[in-house]
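Researcher: Here's a chain I'd like modeled. Treat it as a single chain, no partners, no ligands.
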Amino acid sequence: MASRSSASDLGERTPAHGSKLPVRRAPTRSCVACRTSREKRELLRVVRAPSGAVRADATGRVAGRGAYVCRDLDCITNAITRGALSRALEIPVPAGLLEELAATVTTDSIGGGTRGQE
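Model: Modeled as a single isolated chain. C-alpha cells:
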C-alpha cells in the first residue's frame, strides 16, 4: 500500500489546531526572463493598463495584462533586452521602463535572501 504525503511534503500550509477547513497553497507565478517558478509575492508584477501605459504594480491588483519578473536587476534587464516582457504584455515596452523597474528593486543585504540563495 502506497504511503500518503503529508501537507508539509506537498509545500502546503498546515491548518490551525482543530481547524477542519482545507488549507490553500500560496499562489505561484513564473518569471518571464528566467522562467523560475516562485511565490507570487516574491515577484514583481509589471502591468499593461487598458490605456496602454506600462508600469510596475506593487499591489498586484491593478487592472490590465500582467507579467511577473524576479526582483533582481539581472532578470529585469534580461526581460526587457531579450523582449520577453514585450511578448508577455503584447506591446513594445517604453524606453524608461528599465529605470522605473530598477528603482523598485532593493539592493540592501539587510534581512533574508531569496529562497535557495541564502
